[in-house]
Amino acid sequence: MYVKICLLSIALLCLGACERQSASDDPSETTEGKAASAQVKLYVFDCGYFHFDDVTSSGLTNDETDVLDLFVPCYLIDHPAGRLLWDAGLPMDMAGRGELEYGPGIQVRYDRALIDQLADMDITADDVQKVAFSHMHFDHVGSANLFVNSTMLIQQSEYTAAFEHADENPVFDATLYDKLADTPKVLLTGDFDVFGDGSVQIFSTPGHTPGHQTLLINLNQFGPVLLSGDLYHFEKSRELRRTPTFNTDAEQTLASMDRMEQLLIDRGATLWIEHNQALANTLRLAPAFYD
Questions:
Q1: What is the residue extent of each domain of the chain?
Q2: Most buried of the four, 54, 91, 125, 178, by CB within 10 Å?
Q3: What is the pLDDT of residues 15-55, one digit of tens each?
Q4: How many Cβ atoms sit within 10 Å of the Cβ of residue 136?
Q5: Pick from 50, 58, 62, 125: which is nearest to 88 by CA?
Q6: Does residue 118 surpass a pLDDT of 60?
Q7: Is domain 39-280 classified as CATH 3.60.15.10?
Q8: Alpha carbon 37 to chain centroid distance?
């Protein structure tokens, strides 16, 4: 009888372990307890802004929105198991040069380079273990080449587009990220649990670019936050379900929008539209943080 009880106990323990491993493999099934257990901090950095005289390329008209300024953020997620940089802002050579003409009717400004803002916190590029970009457009990878010792988390489809066919994607600038071609990386084919505990999760949301992705951070005090990447550029983009004219696939984008809207409901998450200047004006910037 004693032997039978021991064998039954071992079997139950093994079953429980298998269930926990299965949950951690799928970000959509991670338990709330595991997500809340990690002491995660989210830092927001000012990595520039855009002003557009005309927002037609975003899929909106100036009659539909009076918002012509877009924020350019970078984010650092501090987890007990390491740091993750999410998006890397405008190109570093724009920093500290005042307002610049990027193109007809487009002005940019980038006051202090991300790496200098990190230095204020005694953090170097080598202190960041993982990097991930919502996508590889130039305003999201401006400091990417500094993080050659970090492991890059990127969708396989985005890697192919950015590193093998950059010349076919006009908003990509391979010179900003080409040093990452042969550095450590994890090529993703869908969603990914960054630290294996549900606290920081990448979701595949293609359409804006072939491998566009969004990031969900489960914060113990503030609650879950979903970083939009460029799934939306404006509040009106979300309200009217509009996609930019330069998106890779409009139908894919709309499907990704639907998926993220359901995720926001399911997780009770707050959506941060990354380029939303009005939102940015309300956020605590680094070295302050959210937890």
A1: 39-280
A2: 91
A3: 333 333 333 344 544 444 444 557 999 999 999 999 999 99
A4: 27
A5: 125
A6: yes
A7: yes
A8: 22
More confident site: 233 or 37: 233
Q: Which two tokens stand for residue 200?
A: 């920081």
Q: How many CB atoms lie within 10 A of CB 266?
A: 9
Read off the tokens for 176: 């900003």
User: Distance between CA 30 and CA 44 in Å, rounded?
Assistant: 25
